[in-house]
Amino acid sequence: MENWLGNKSIVVIGGTTGLGFSAAKAFVRNGANVIVVGRNPENCLVAELQLGSTARAKQADATHPQTAMEAIQLCIREFGSFDGLYHVAGGGGEKFGDGPLHELSLEGWHKTLDWNLTSLMLSNQAAIRTFMGMNKGGSILNMSSVLGFYPSSQFSNHAYATAKSAVLGFSKSIASSYASKNIRVNVLSPGIIEGVEGKESEQFVTSKQSLDGGRYGIPGDLDGAAVYFMSDYSKFTTGQNLSVDGGWEVSDGQY
Length: 255
Fold this sequence. Notes:
Elements: E1 9-13, H1 18-29, E2 33-38, H2 41-51, E3 55-59, H3 67-79, E4 84-87, H4 106-134, E5 138-143, H5 158-178, E6 183-190, H6 202-208, H7 223-230, E7 241-244
Parallel strand pairs: 1-2, 1-4, 2-3, 4-5, 5-6, 6-7
Helix pairs in contact: 1-7, 3-4, 4-5
């Protein structure tokens, strides 16, 4: 099989578990050097062991201002280049107090936006500054969600939906600003991933995501798209959002 990412060095923010770790494994299989960033030291150790000699793991919090730049600098030191950033870090903010608007706490609002949006702004800023400083182009891929623009009353975490909607606007805005510098910025929007929600939503989700027999998404569903956006095959593509959602956007859910 062709190595789509030969000679590419990529940083994955939120790359030690779930969607990010699955993508990191796909990047390595396709010839890339990879730096993965995660908060849990044990997950970092496991990720580095499983990814092999062309990968390094960094334990850090994506919401800290220096995390992304330090990861990019590590990538350059270890592998001699920096070619792409994939920002996956984030997730549901229920534990912070996100939820329906009449129950949403101010702390839940701020923490959910910080986790999903501020961290992404910081990583994108670090990548843009590095590409410009190296006088080279590169690829940035950001993680959104179908819930950011195709919502459902079954999933009424409004701070999360706001953050994921903003990812799209932010990405398109910077894609416009930096296209002339050959820096590409695109978005992947997964549907509902297995393990994210309770069983009470299963019938609705599997009818909305009716491809492949009707099911929740799995991390590997996004790997091919992530490899494409990190590769030179996407060199004429920027400011785009690709939904990998099993048909969520175009299907009627059954309650």
